[in-house]
C-alpha cells in the first residue's frame, strides 16, 4: 500500500471506458491463524457505492485475489458427491456479492487467481475467470490439468471482452 500510495487495500479506476475495481479479498479468519475470502462490511458497502455511482452504460471489471465464484472446488479425484468449500479457496460472501452484481448488469467480468488453475464460470451474465499462475514453476509442471501461465484480457469499449490463457 505504501509503494502504490494507497489509503485502503481496495480501489477503483477508469481506464479506456471501463471501471476496474480491485478488491482486498484476503482476511484473517476468526482465530487469526488462517485466511478466508471475504470483503467485510466496510468494503462491501464501498463496493456497493462504487457500483451505484458508476454509469449504467460503463462496463465494470472486478478483480480479487480469491475467487468470488469458481467451479474448481468441485474437482477432486478423492471426493464423490460430497464437496467441501473452504473459505480460503472461495469467498465466504459469494451469494451477497453475486446478488449485488445482479442489480448492476454492467458488471461483466471478475478476475481472480489464488487457486493457480484455469477456470471459467458464467453466471447471470457475469464471467468469472481464474487464470492460472505465473509462479507455476514451484510445482514443476501442470497443476492438475492447468499448465503454468497467465490470462490475457482484451476489453472493448462496447463492454465486450476477449480472454485467452497463455502458457509458458
Describe the structure.
With 168 residues, the protein is α/β, with parallel strands linked by helices. The chain has a single domain, classed as GpdQ, beta-strand dimerisation domain (Transcription Regulator spoIIAA). The protein has helices at 40-52, 94-102, and strands spanning 11-15, 18-22, 26-28, 35-37, 60-63, 107-112, 118-123, 126-131, 149-155, 161-167. A six-stranded mixed sheet has the order 1-2-5-6-8-7, with helices on one face. Strands 3-4 form a two-stranded antiparallel ribbon. A two-stranded antiparallel ribbon has the order 9-10. Strand 5 (60-63), helix 2 (94-102) and strand 6 (107-112) form a beta-alpha-beta unit. The mean pLDDT is 85.
Summarize the structure.
The protein is α/β, with parallel strands linked by helices. It contains two helices and ten strands; from the N terminus they run ββββαβαβββββ.
Strand content: 25-35%
Structural class: alpha/beta
The CATH first-level class comes to Alpha Beta
**Major sheet size, sense and barrel closure:** 6 strands, mixed
CATH architectural label: 2-Layer Sandwich
Radius of gyration: 16 Å
Helix content: 10-25%
Span from first to last CA? 30 Å
What name is given to the CATH topology?
Transcription Regulator spoIIAA
Number of strands: 10
- Which overall shape is indicated by the principal axes computed on the Cα atoms? globular
Strand order of the largest sheet: 1-2-5-6-8-7
- The count of domains is 1
Mean pLDDT: 85
Determine the CATH superfamily.
GpdQ, beta-strand dimerisation domain
Note poorly predicted spans: none
Count the helices. How many?
2
Q: What is the N-to-C order of secondary-structure elements (H for helix, E for strand)?
A: EEEEHEHEEEEE
Amino acid at each position: 500500500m505504501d509503494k502504490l500510495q494507497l489509503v485502503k487495500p481496495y480501489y477503483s479506476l477508469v481506464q479506456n471506458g471501463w471501471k476496474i475495481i480491485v478488491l482486498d479479498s484476503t482476511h484473517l479468519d476468526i482465530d487469526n491463524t488462517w485466511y478466508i475470502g471475504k470483503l467485510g462490511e466496510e468494503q462491501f458497502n464501498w463496493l456497493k457505492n462504487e457500483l451505484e455511482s458508476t454509469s449504467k452504460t460503463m462496463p465494470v471489471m472486478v478483480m480479487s485475489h480469491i475467487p468470488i465464484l469458481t467451479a474448481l472446488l468441485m474437482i477432486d479425484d478423492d471426493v464423490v458427491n460430497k464437496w467441501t468449500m473452504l473459505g480460503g479457496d472461495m469467498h465466504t460472501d459469494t451469494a451477497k456479492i453475486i446478488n449485488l452484481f445482479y442489480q448492476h448488469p454492467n458488471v461483466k467480468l471478475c478476475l481472480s487467481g489464488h487457486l493457480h488453475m484455469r477456470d471459467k464460470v458464467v453466471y447471470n451474465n457475469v464471467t468469472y475467470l481464474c487464470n492460472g499462475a505465473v509462479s507455476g514453476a514451484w510445482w514443476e509442471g501442470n497443476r492438475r490439468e492447468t499448465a503454468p501461465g497467465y490470462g490475457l484480457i482484451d476489453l472493448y469499449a462496447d463492454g465486450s471482452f476477449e480472454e485467452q490463457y497463455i502458457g509458458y
